[in-house]
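pinging the channel bc i need a second pair of eyes. not urgent but kinda urgent?? the chain im working w is below, pasted from the shared doc
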Amino acid sequence: MSIKITDDSIRPLLDSYFDSSTTIENLRRLSGGASRETWAFTASTDEAKHDLVLRRDHGSNPGSTDRATEYELLKVVEAGGVLVPEVKFVLPPEANLGEGFVMNMIAGETIPRKILRDDEFEDARLVLAQQCGTQAALIHQIDVTDLPALLVLGPQEQIKQHRDLIDALGEPHPAFELGLQWLENNIPETVEPKLVHGDFRNGNLIVGPEGLRAVLDWELSHLGDPAEDLGWCCVRSWRFGVNDKPVGGFGSRKEMLDAYFDAGGEAIDEQRLFFWEVLGTLKWGVICEMQAFTHLSGRVRSVELATLGRRIAETEWDLLRTIYPEQVADTKTTTPVATDNGSIHDRPRAAELLEAVREFIERDVRSSENERLAFHARVAMNALGIVERELVLGESIDSPIIARLGNLLDEKGSPSELVTQLSARIRAGDPKSIGHEGIALVCDLVRAKLEVANPHYLEDE
């Protein structure tokens, strides 16, 4: 078990690094960071004040580099002209603080909804897509021989990786199976592996009023197709509701690609970019599933991780509407009907109690001046809303889909058994399951899940 991050636990490391007695001020854990912790603080010596950030893991994460490797990587990319924070030192094992490192803090905003909506960043939004293209080109021109050891992950390796993860987690998703099948049939030509950031998107950028200041979160870096970073940047989840601007909610693909080419990047054709956008959509869905199971396993109990399990439906919807737009357009728009068949229990009913708790969080907790508490209050409100909708609407949404699953498969079983059977048949290439009727059913299945998980996601059609 790692020692808790406190002034006393990190002061000896800072004393050693600065070769001076240090005073620590304003140590605080930042919001977000579902898979790892991020702490900010000011370290003062007799000579100067240093605004710093400490990042450490909860534990090992499949497909992720360790913090020592990320530290070495950041030193290389900074020397290559990429905008990144200057790293200071790796947490030594004897400190018993876990895997992590300390780096400079760069002032600016990372919260996408503020970047996309606040007046302060109006000018930045005009140039961010081009700046992302320029930074991506610099990343992809780093000499791979200068890098620490990284995995080589091309399209075939990633398709297998995601399929293996889905199987290991044991929760089948017919939409993912359709996506994997499409990806296998549309693999682009092999290219010389370059450094790939692996999580290059809105949310991992520090932005000021003038634009991009730094690229963060390099733990998924590997060697592969540079088009992967550009496609990932265009995934709908990273537009945060500004869906008419596919690059992070702030720009067009053309703006990004033109700047990328002007900065020395290779020409990326639309088909290759599209492939990586599809794979990125699937990837985020699998990551959501992994994060939810991190909570369910008890390894890290977190309302943020728990709610990510219900965001899987968003990625499934995006995947289907990307590769099967006509079938998604034909999905049945339902108006769920709330029913109250009575109960032996007095009112308020379960859903009404949830509503009361949700209102309490919104009124009394969400307004907290503690940034991290306020963030998790919003997440908790969303979780309660999901449970409330499932209690009220669940049967009216579930029953028609379950009946259609049984008819398509000519099988009887529980809902989970029928979904598992459909996933298996899609993977096996069963003509009926991958034909028009099967795809239409998967589209309606995902729409039904979204009616509970996040009905607002269906409004932008």
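so The longest helix spans residues 371-409. and The chain has a mean pLDDT of 92. — does that match what u expected or am i reading it wrong
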